[in-house]
Design goal:
Elements lengths: L2 H12 L6 H5 L18 H12 L5 H4 L5 H11 L1
Length: 81
């Protein structure tokens, strides 16, 4: 699976959690999930679980803490599939 395919799926997963829909439309790998997309930090667990289900991977707590940007999420997922 290519990085662009992973990114598209990541953005789709983030969509219901992102309060800033305009930032989501213009998202890049540098886009901050919490600050720019205005995702509530308590929802990150749900997002990580959605990543695990969508990509059939397991994400440990240490790895989950590193998912601060869309690019970090894509990189983590790519390393595990």
């Amino acid at each position: 699976m290519s990085e662009s395919e992973i990114m598209e799926k990541v953005i789709n997963i983030l969509s219901p959690y992102a309060k800033n829909k305009e930032a989501l439309k213009n998202a890049t790998t540098d886009t901050s999930i919490l600050k720019e997309l205005e995702v509530n930090s308590s929802r990150l667990v749900d997002i990580i679980i959605a990543f695990e289900d969508e990509f059939d991977i397991e994400v440990g707590d240490g790895d989950a803490d590193k998912v601060t940007t869309i690019g970090a999420a894509v990189g983590l997922i790519k390393s595990k599939i």
